[in-house]
## 1
Amino acid sequence: MNYSLLGVLTLVLGQPVFAAEMPAMPMDKMPMKEMQMEQSGAAATAQASGTVKAIDSQKGSVTIAHGPVPAVKWPAMTMGFKATPEQLAQVQVGQQVMFEFKNEGMQATLLSIKPMQQ
Ligand SMILES: [Cu+2]
């Protein structure tokens, strides 16, 4: 009798603690929302594929004829991307490439580039 009564008491006393923890859960999602807002305010990054048209190691740029990039609302076009000497060394004119870039204003900068595997 005493034991079962203790068990009921534990259950009853245990529940408010559980309930108190519950409201904390939606709060956990708040930092994520803030992160998403920060991302949209910063430079947009996107992935695309295309064909290397020209490489200018002096200017540090590569011209790529790329397909549409919905992430930055771009149609297909041929344009220049800022690239590091290391990135330029990985590709050749005429090659199909996959690349990742950061778009700030009118300046697109490569984050990574690699030849497409066929
Ligand atoms: Cu473009």
## 2
Amino acid sequence: MANKLAVLALLVVLCSVVTRQAVGYSYADYPPPGPLPTPSPAPSGNDLAVGFYDRTCPDAEKIVRGVVEEAVKQNPGIGAGLIRMLFHDCFVEGCDASVLLDPTPTNPQPEKLSLPNNPSLRGFEVIDAAKAALEKACPGNVSCADVVAFAARDASFFLSNGRINVRMPAGRRDGSVSVSTSALQSLPRPSFNLTELTASFAAKGLDADDLVVLSGAHSVGRSHCSSFVPDGRLNASTSTMNPALAAAVRPGQPDRDRRPHG
Ligand code: HEM
């Protein structure tokens, strides 16, 4: 997973873009954190290969890239959503598209409806459109998990004006297990301190360097104020953030030095 996610970490070279959204959802609804899973060794990724669809669906990556290009042109923020989607997929049950599964009568609470994903995770319609185009070109060939990975890679490409251009290994299989409590348990919470963040990444076989580098993905996209305001992190008298940064992102302040990547 380190390799797959590290690709996205190249986003650190992107211009700093943080936008705010006043309305949101409350992480206060989170249940108290349970014990973290036992750290497992990083998967080798040996079964994945660059050009995995070269024979079975030669245009697969081109098709996904075209759909993502159009979506990011319409709204660059969707690109940020697609990058986050790969993280939220991979951290829960591995990179298996479990984040995409809709509720059913037998599984009314999939990952998609968990607090970290609902309502903030965006870009599902782009994955649906890419998958629909792929099904027309080569039915039943390309996994949804690979579509999520290609789309995140392509979002990085377009948001960086082509500076981030990596070859994404493919060959992931789609999973069928998707439970909202797993997302709550596996995904790091916005309230986590450094110890908790490090432990959360260690549980996935990732180290502190991975944590720092991958956090660079927050160079793009938005956050709802509800993730930051309640714990006083943006409050001038209690914040331990760099004062200039805290002032810049404090609710009610005019946006400064931002590109329209909301
Ligand atoms: C280190 C632990 C992490 C925490 C606690 C965290 C938390 C968050 C939170 C609270 C938001 C705002 C969601 C919202 O209110 O809409 C967010 C947004 C985002 N996160 Fe993370 N995140 C983490 C790691 C990552 C990683 C590893 C990636 C990708 C490699 C990532 C990519 C993003 C992106 C691109 C956005 C913006 C999404 C959008 O604009 O729709 N995050 N994250």
